[in-house]
């Protein structure tokens, strides 16, 4: 019986069939691929998201519970991450947005840990699924929109009225701004999911080629290079999602152009 290895399987004629997208299939954690998934089913996606939360808890609760004046390695990592995002929120959004720092920091940590855990061989990447990233993006969109009206009332609509433009073209610009505003959650979610999906798919393809003896040295070099790039992408995508959240929050707090 032919055995599937690294996303490849022999087909009739001696060729190889690639299935790089199989790694994104949501399936029961205990069971076989293709088994029904209900709302209460523990899936591979739920497991890796829960693992990301546990890792965050381990780093920011267990590793820092001593609150040492001279921090250890794990406490130093936690403090650096805290300071990095706190400075981002303060610089991009302003000091009055610091009260929303816990939510923004939570978003950053969840995406970052989910991205990095997905780089473990045979792991699952929840942030490559639009169902996950869309929920995160919609939560940000709804939160900043509600906050904008609560804080500014009708003045929040000034976000769409470009006062610096000539009066004759302001209605056209307002329509463009309005469309752009409602497209935010789409671009916010697709950017993250698309980059993670593309990177993992390419990585799986190169890993599959590594099974072919004639090109395995080049394929292994390719896997190494792409894996290094994916480590960078894992951080950059968490950073981009977070900084865009800060920009949207700034618009909600200070809507006038």
UniProtKB/TrEMBL annotation:
Entry keyword set: ATP synthesis, Cell membrane, CF(0), Hydrogen ion transport, Ion transport, Membrane, Transmembrane, Transmembrane helix, Transport
Subcellular location as annotated: Cell membrane; Membrane
Pfam families: ATP-synt_A
GO CC terms in record: plasma membrane; proton-transporting ATP synthase complex
Membrane topology: Multi-pass membrane protein
Molecular function terms, GO-annotated: proton-transporting ATP synthase activity, rotational mechanism
Ribosomal protein keyword on record: no
SUPFAM superfamilies membership: F1F0 ATP synthase subunit A (SSF81336)
Cited CDD domains: ATP-synt_Fo_a_6
Predominant location category: membrane
Transmembrane segments annotated in the record for this chain: 45-64, 100-124, 130-150, 157-183, 203-224, 231-250
Keyword flag Transport: yes
Record function comment: Key component of the proton channel; it plays a direct role in the translocation of protons across the membrane.
Similarity comment text for this entry: Belongs to the ATPase A chain family.
Protein name, per record: ATP synthase subunit a
């Amino acid at each position: 019986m032919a055995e599937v290895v690294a996303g490849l399987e022999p087909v009739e004629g001696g060729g190889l069939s690639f299935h790089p997208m199989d790694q994104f299939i949501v399936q029961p954690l205990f069971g076989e691929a293709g088994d029904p998934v209900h709302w209460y089913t523990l899936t591979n996606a739920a497991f890796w998201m829960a693992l990301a939360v546990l890792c965050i808890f381990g780093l920011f609760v267990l590793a820092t519970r001593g609150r040492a004046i001279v921090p250890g390695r794990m406490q130093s990592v936690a403090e650096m991450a805290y300071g990095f995002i706190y400075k981002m929120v303060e610089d991009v959004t302003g000091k009055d947005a610091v009260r929303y720092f816990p939510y923004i920091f939570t978003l950053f940590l969840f995406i970052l840990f989910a991205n990095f855990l997905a780089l473990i061989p045979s792991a699952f990447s929840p942030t490559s699924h639009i169902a996950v990233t869309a929920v995160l993006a919609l939560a940000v969109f709804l939160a900043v929109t509600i906050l904008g009206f609560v804080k500014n009332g009708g003045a929040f609509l000034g976000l769409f009225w470009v006062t610096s433009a000539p009066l004759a073209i302001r209605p056209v610009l307002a329509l463009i701004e309005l469309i752009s505003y409602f497209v935010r959650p789409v671009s916010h979610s697709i950017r993250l999911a698309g980059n993670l999906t593309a990177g993992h798919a390419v990585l799986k393809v190169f890993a599959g080629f590594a099974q072919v003896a004639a090109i395995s040295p080049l394929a292994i070099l390719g896997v190494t290079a792409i894996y290094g790039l994916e480590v960078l992408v894992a951080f950059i995508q968490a950073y981009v999602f977070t900084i865009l959240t800060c920009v949207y929050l700034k618009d909600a707090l200070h809507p006038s152009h």
